[in-house]
Amino acid sequence: MRRNFRLGVANGVLFTLGEAMLSANVVLALLVRELGGSLVLVGLLPALQTGGYLLPQLLVGGRIQGMAAKLPLYRRAAVARVVAYLVLLAAIFGADMFSPSVSLWLIVASFSIFNLGGGTSTLAFQDVVAKVIPPRQRGSFFGTRQLLGGLLTFLIVGPLARWLLNDNAPLGFPNNYGVLATLGLLGIGSGLLSFALIDEPVQAQPGARLRVIEGLRRAPAIIREHANYRWFIISRILTRVGQIAEPFYMVYATEALGLPTSAAGLFLAVRAITGALSNLLWGRVSDRSGNRRLVVLSGMLLVLPPVLALAGPIVATRLGMGSGGLMLAIGLVFLASGAANDGSNMAANTYLLEIAPDDERPTYMGLANTLLGAATFVPVLGGWLVERAGFFATFTVGLVFALLGLLASSRLGQGDAER
User: Fold this and answer.
1) Cβ distance 340 to 34 under 8 Å?
2) Longest dimension (CA), the chain
3) Peptide bond before 174: cis, by omega within 30 degrees of 0?
4) How far is the C-alpha of 295 from the C-alpha of 323, rounded, in Å?
């Protein structure tokens, strides 16, 4: 168990570090804007990232459920993801040779395939974690992954992004983004390898293998009969809609408030360090107070980013704090976002693993994640809303749905390990 725990933590740390190098909400968003991409496309990036992970799961959940060992599927998907990332890397380095439209098409296509590969293997990942990590240690497991990954992102990725994306950087466009993407591939590839080396116990009695149509027929009964499961899905969908403004905080800072592009490195570092340190709290809450409380507390914190984005710049301007005040105001948005998102991500993993029956875990998780995946394309609507109604209207919509998500989470009951 100790070896598996360490390899699982290494997977999370290295993958977090690699993924942050080309953060969809910060670095990749700025790259797309430099290539002339629209705000709708900026909103599409995190939707492709999260939706790619979530949407395919109902299609593969029934098949995975019948497998006694899931790691072979994870390893095959890892190879496909590395290949897709290599295409993404070539598209970035070739951005000065291709037309902007060709570069954008290649970036979006390869980024989509990379994340769809993650969607294929995520159920395998979650099932292996459920096998090798006891319920009362899963908070520590996910918390340690997120803590160390966030700290390294703060120490390495933030300063590096700020240096490479500065106007006086030693590398020009697109090589500055290409270097970040190359380092991202090293981290992601190493993380995938770490989890592939876990010693997975073979399941003595795997669940029944279901065809896609059988899984779809089973879905209404699962939702109708399991109240905790139903309210978990409702609260998560509302919460995801509440994050409609997430991809636009950086764009708002640079295009509406006039802050420099190099501020992306600072904000990325702030988000990383607060997210990392918050895991000291989140892991303790999960292990000692239960995962229902973790869902509710992280939901409360998710209300703060849109509130701060709405009020912070106004307060800074009225107090005559200048650009420093605006930097502080947006920094607080990323501070709250980092802590809230890490708590929310941990809550989603730990609570759902706890309430899903062992023999039907892939089906339960695949159904939940596919339904949640439909809400991940809300940021695309957010880009349209920003262009039509402005940033404030988008932030307000996010606030309303974050509050509704918090209200729905209060209907959750205790998980099995908490009773």
Assistant:
1) no
2) 67
3) yes
4) 36
pLDDT tens-digit readout, 312-327: 989 998 888 888 889 9
Closest C-alpha among 296, 290, 293, 297 to residue 418: 290
Point out the residues of the chain with pLDDT beneath 70.
25, 58-59, 61-62, 65-66, 204-216, 376-377, 379, 414-419
Specify the pLDDT at position 5.
Answer: 92
Rounded Cα distance, 2 and 21, in Å:
29
String of DSSP letters for 259-305:
--TTHHHHHHHHHHHHHHHHHHHHHHIIIII-HHHHHHHHHHHTTHH
Residue 251 burial (CB < 10 Å; 0-12/13-18/19+)?
Answer: buried
Helix-then-strand count for the chain, H and E: 19, 0
Contact criterion met (CB below 8 Å) for 25 and 38: no
Any idea what DSSP says for residue 356?
A: S
**Which pLDDT does position 306 carry in this prediction?**
93
CA-angle at 376, arms to 371 and 218, nearest 5°: 5
Note the pLDDT of residue 376. 67
Neighbours of 3 (CB within 10 A): 11
pLDDT recorded at residue 209: 65
What pLDDT score was predicted for residue 208?
A: 60
- In single-letter form, the type of residue at position 146 comes to Q
Ramachandran assignment for 390, one of left (phi > 0), alpha (psi -120 to 50 degrees), beta (any other): left
Q: Residue 375 CA to chain centroid, in angstroms? A: 13
Q: Interhelix angle for 391-409 vs 291-301, to 10°? A: 160
pTM equals: 0.68
Structure tokens at 7: 């390899």
Q: What is the pLDDT of residue 80?
A: 94
Structure tokens at 76: 């095959």
pLDDT at 184: 93
DSSP line for 52-102: HHHTTHHHHHHHHHT-S--HHHHHHHHHHHHHHHHHHHHHHHTTTTS-HHH
Instruction: Tell me whether residue 293 is exposed, middle or buried, using C-beta atoms within 10 angstroms of its C-beta: 0 to 12, 13 to 18, 19 or more.
Output: middle
Report CA torsion sign: 170, 172, 174, 175: negative
170 — phi, psi (to 5°)?
-70, -20
